[in-house]
Amino acid sequence: MTITAENLGKRYQRNWIFRGLTHGFRPGTATALLGPNGAGKSTLINTLAGQLLPTEGRVGYALAGRDVPAEALPRHLAYAAPYLELPEELTLRELLRFHTHFKPLQAGISTEKLIGLLYLDKAADQLVREFSSGMKQRLKLGLALYAAAPLLLLDEPTTNLDATGVAWFREQVRANRAGRTLLLSSNVPAEYDFCDAQLLVTDWQKGAAKS
């Protein structure tokens, strides 16, 4: 998936979050979107993902040389963020059956294999609402990392993970990034030090004056 941002800007009321961003994101690359808390990293990643409309500029998408309309983008992307909700009234097995009906897993990855990769075998028939915050975050990451989707978006991926969980994340993302376009928002170096490129959100706040 290729993403092309042209003079992209987003503001709330009179305050610009970023403005004048022109950049291309290519398949097989991982880009870290960086900045302090409150700088607008999540706003930027959601705008690039088509979840938020830009105030000005445009975002274009292409897959295998063909343009992808914004309304068709959700089927091509996988997204993990600590603020995304899970259907917690389901067991893990039920949730995976439901989720993969709409977002299939990569070839060779069954729901049972994914449960093992998440180290959640003992919780397979447990209600998700009974999971710890770390278990829920591993589940969100696993659903994104192992989805059959060329565009992978990760917003603060190690939130709620302990040191073992962070090591698990780094291992899994290395195993699943080839050929995909990966955007990762963070201000924690251990989350993004493998990325090929970095964009600092505050670089597009300079000169983004109120208007």
Describe how the helices and strands are arranged.
Layout: E1 2-12, E2 15-25, E3 30-34, H1 41-48, E4 56-63, E5 66-67, E6 77-80, H2 92-102, H3 111-117, H4 133-145, E7 151-155, H5 163-176, E8 181-186, H6 189-192, E9 197-200
Parallel strand pairs: 3-8, 3-9, 6-7, 7-8
Antiparallel strand pairs: 1-2, 1-4, 4-5
In short:
With 211 residues, the chain is α/β, with parallel strands linked by helices. The chain has helices spanning 41-48, 92-102, 111-117, 133-145, 163-176, 189-192, and strands at 2-12, 15-25, 30-34, 56-63, 66-67, 77-80, 151-155, 181-186, 197-200. A hairpin with a 2-residue loop joins β1 (2-12) and β2.
Features:
211 residues; alpha/beta; five-stranded parallel beta sheet; four-stranded antiparallel beta sheet; 27% helix; globular
Tell me about this structure.
Helix 4 runs parallel beside helix 5 (163-176). It contains six helices and nine strands. A five-stranded parallel beta sheet has the order 6-7-8-3-9, sandwiched between helices. The protein has a four-stranded antiparallel beta sheet with strand order 2-1-4-5, with helices on one face. The model has no long low-confidence stretch (mean pLDDT 94). With 211 residues, it is α/β, with parallel strands linked by helices. The chain has one domain: P-loop containing nucleotide triphosphate hydrolases (Rossmann fold, 3-Layer(aba) Sandwich), CATH 3.40.50.
